[in-house]
């Protein structure tokens, strides 16, 4: 009832302002913006990804498996975690392995385009990634009784970093793998679920039917890449199979000279103390760990530990920083007009300033300090960063793949980033228990103050300034339900009448701290603003632009059993509010009190301030915590509640929520290019493989 009343009041205020002709108020949209089919998609950044099933004469059937439900997580309750298994792949009871056949060795598969000038085939960056069905288990986690074992389509990584649990005998703080570095695909060679990728921009003209194949090639498929919005202009890539002859061609591109590099820090395999604020969630095995403050390896007392897993991903277009498993903290773009040579050493590549504060995740509350009916406050640094493990990474000439496993009570949550030359794909397999309303789960990107200037989406195609002042008409509300009454306050810049505040008296004035218990609510609640971004996140492209680069992204929600049901409660999230301290981050100001409410004064004793563009680069202001941490152009998705997405303790996907976010990275400030780069889901490329030239 309270939310309904709030919608009526805020909507009436906005409409009244429109009728009065006062203020630049956006009208409520009766229908969501639809793709402009007259605007062709720009394919310059897009990869093409096929599977082994597209090459039937070369691919064996993928492995078929079955597994009975497990109870290992439930048996590990009651303080028995030390005796229980940590992150691992559980074996299925039924597995065909390679009994159904073996495929063409993947190192024999090469990508070519036809060069009309030289009348010859030339190799292009081309990559084959093997995929296998695994069963994820982490019985040692305190919430494994809910997750148990989950089926997951897993890449065959160069390194499965969850195996890095052994101490180097020469240095107890140096991590080594227990056993082999990775688990092979049970089906040798290409099988039907393996993935083959190349860049659409590398496709070329058709080769003549009489063209001679390169020496040492004994098979070919022609891949036709067609753009439905540019009829009559297909392009072609030729996937070829090399013979076993000694002089047969080898791949010309690899992880060291292709479009993308994975560059782990030299000390990324150093054990650090790593534990969630909820100590048994995703609990890791204890052991010696390196203390970066004391700069020494601590041998006793032992604590939970994991490798640092810090790394850079670099392409000629952008660089991306990991400061841990869930910690994505930097993204910088090549300056417009600059060119980074793909073949050069990445240390010579040039980039502009860092654009993002960091990727952020929230469960139950947007910021610390509130109260919800059941739960606390979780975030990516002190919770998920301490309970997750790096599942693994794989690097090739077309893409880098990196997957993180586990997030507190979401024991088998897996988030996978796939990096291409000009795009980042972020896939999430959300497997978590029931999460009630007030206030769900958030996934969002927070930007650095002064580094970006304009935000666009289909509802605001002319853009709004990113200046630390919120642009939503309504949507950001402080709600209170307790023994002292019920009420809310809306701090958005509602036209004409200003911010709203309503309350009803309660039985006494005790507030949430006096007899309210878990029934009390005192929390920031976010609901979508239909005047600004509509009500369904999957319908929108979003764009952040500034002189140092342009990012266009789009998120889509899928679910195994209920179709697009979760898209209804997967709503857009936007907050441009330099006064709002969401609990983590370093820009505009440094958040200093982990998982807590920051003090109102900075370290010099002065009142903390809300950053404005007139303040310039906040990194130049001292002390560093003078500004509130703030949200700058923060956008993403808000799942308002979750009934269940952890597959009901079954080892097959039943109700998990799967999503994909696609981020296009462009040099310079482009204006609104959302239709060209943000509509690939509605304007997809069509690729088909046929045998022969």
Radius of gyration: 26 Å
Shape: globular
How much beta, percentage-wise? 35-45%
Strand order, largest beta sheet: 24-25-26-27-39-36-35-29-30
Largest sheet at a glance?
9 strands, antiparallel
Helix coverage percent of residues? under 10%
Number of helices: 5
Which spans of ≥5 residues are poorly predicted at pLDDT below 50?
A: 1-25, 494-498
Question: What is the distance, rounded to the nearest whole angstrom, between the alpha carbons of the first and last residues?
Answer: 66 Å
Query: Would you report the number of β strands?
Result: 40
Mean pLDDT: 89
Instruction: Please state the structural category.
Output: mainly beta
Question: Your description of this structure?
Answer:
The chain has a nine-stranded antiparallel sheet with strand order 24-25-26-27-39-36-35-29-30. A five-stranded antiparallel sheet has the order 6-5-14-13-40, with no helix packed on it. It is built from five helices and 40 strands. The model is unreliable at 1-25 and 494-498 (pLDDT under 50). With 693 residues, the protein is mainly β. It is globular, with a radius of gyration of 26 Å. The longest helix has 19 residues, at 2-20. It has a domain at 1-31 and 358-375 and 435-693. The chain starts with a helix and ends with a strand. Helix content is 5%, strand content 35%.
Keywords:
mainly beta; nine-stranded antiparallel beta sheet; 40 strands; about 5% helix
């Amino acid at each position: 009832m309270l939310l309904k009343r709030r919608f009526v009041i805020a909507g009436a205020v906005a409409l009244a302002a429109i009728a009065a002709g006062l203020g630049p108020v956006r009208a409520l949209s009766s229908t969501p913006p639809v793709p402009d089919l007259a605007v062709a998609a720009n394919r310059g950044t897009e990869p093409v990804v096929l599977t082994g099933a597209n090459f039937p004469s070369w691919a064996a059937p993928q492995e078929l498996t079955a597994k009975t439900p497990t109870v290992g997580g439930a048996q590990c309750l009651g303080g028995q975690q030390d005796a229980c298994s940590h992150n691992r792949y559980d074996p299925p009871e039924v597995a065909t392995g390679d009994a159904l056949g073996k495929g063409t060795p993947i190192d024999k598969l090469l990508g070519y385009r036809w060069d009309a000038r030289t009348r010859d085939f030339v190799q292009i960056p081309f990559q084959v990634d093997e995929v296998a069905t695994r069963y994820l288990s982490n019985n040692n986690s305190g919430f494994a009784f809910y997750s148990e074992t989950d089926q997951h389509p897993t890449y065959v990584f160069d390194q499965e970093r969850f195996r890095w649990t052994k101490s180097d005998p020469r240095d107890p703080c140096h991590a080594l793998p227990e056993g082999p570095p990775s688990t092979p695909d049970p089906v040798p060679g290409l099988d039907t679920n393996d993935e083959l990728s190349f860049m659409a921009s590398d496709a070329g003209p058709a080769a003549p039917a009489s063209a001679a194949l390169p020496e040492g090639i004994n098979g070919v498929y022609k891949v036709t890449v067609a753009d439905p919005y540019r009829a009559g202009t297909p392009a072609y890539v030729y996937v070829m199979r090399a013979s076993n002859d000694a002089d047969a061609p080898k791949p010309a591109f690899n992880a060291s000279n292709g479009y993308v590099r994975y560059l782990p820090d030299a000390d990324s395999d150093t054990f650090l103390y790593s534990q969630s604020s909820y100590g048994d969630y995703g609990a890791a095995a204890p052991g010696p760990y390196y203390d970066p403050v004391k700069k020494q390896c601590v041998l006793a007392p032992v604590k939970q530990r994991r490798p640092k897993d810090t790394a850079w991903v670099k392409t000629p277009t952008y660089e991306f920083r990991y400061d841990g498993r869930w910690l994505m903290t930097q993204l910088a773009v090549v300056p417009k007009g600059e060119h980074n040579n793909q073949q050069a050493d990445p240390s010579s590549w040039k980039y502009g300033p860092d654009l993002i504060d960091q990727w952020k995740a929230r469960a139950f509350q947007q910021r610390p300090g509130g109260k919800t009916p059941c739960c606390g406050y979780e975030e990516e640094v002190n919770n998920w960063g301490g309970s997750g493990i790096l599942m693994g990474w794989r690097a090739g000439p077309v893409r880098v793949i990196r997957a993180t496993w586990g997030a507190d009570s979401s024991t088998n949550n897996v988030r996978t980033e796939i990096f291409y030359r000009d795009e980042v794909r972020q896939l999430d397999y959300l497997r978590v228990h029931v999460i009630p309303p007030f206030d769900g789960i958030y996934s969002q990107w927070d930007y650095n103050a002064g580094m970006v200037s304009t935000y666009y989406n289909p509802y605001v195609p002319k853009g709004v300034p990113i200046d630390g002042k919120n642009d939503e008409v309504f949507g950001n509300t402080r709600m209170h339900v307790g023994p002292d009454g019920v009420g809310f306050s809306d701090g958005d810049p509602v036209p004409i009448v200003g911010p709203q505040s309503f309350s009803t008296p309660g039985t006494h004035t005790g507030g949430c701290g006096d007899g309210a218990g878990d029934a009390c609510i005192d929390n920031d609640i976010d609901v979508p603003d239909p005047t600004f971004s509509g009500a369904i996140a999957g319908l929108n492209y979003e764009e952040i632009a500034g002189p140092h680069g342009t990012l266009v992204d789009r998120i889509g929600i899928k679910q195994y059993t209920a179709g697009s049901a979760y898209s209804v409660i997967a709503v857009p999230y936007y907050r441009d509010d330099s006064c709002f301290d969401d609990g983590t981050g370093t820009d505009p100001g440094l958040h200093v009190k982990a998982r807590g409410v920051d003090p109102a004064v900075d370290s010099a004793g002065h009142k903390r301030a809300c950053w404005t563009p007139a303040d310039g680069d906040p990194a130049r202001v001292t002390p560093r915590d003078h500004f509130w941490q703030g949200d700058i152009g923060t956008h993403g998705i808000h799942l308002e509640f979750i009934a269940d997405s952890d597959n009901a303790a079954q080892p097959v996907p039943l109700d998990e929520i799967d999503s994909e976010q696609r981020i296009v990275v462009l040099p310079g400030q482009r204006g609104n290019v959302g239709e060209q780069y943000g509509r690939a889901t509605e304007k997809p490329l069509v690729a088909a493989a046929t045998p022969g030239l």
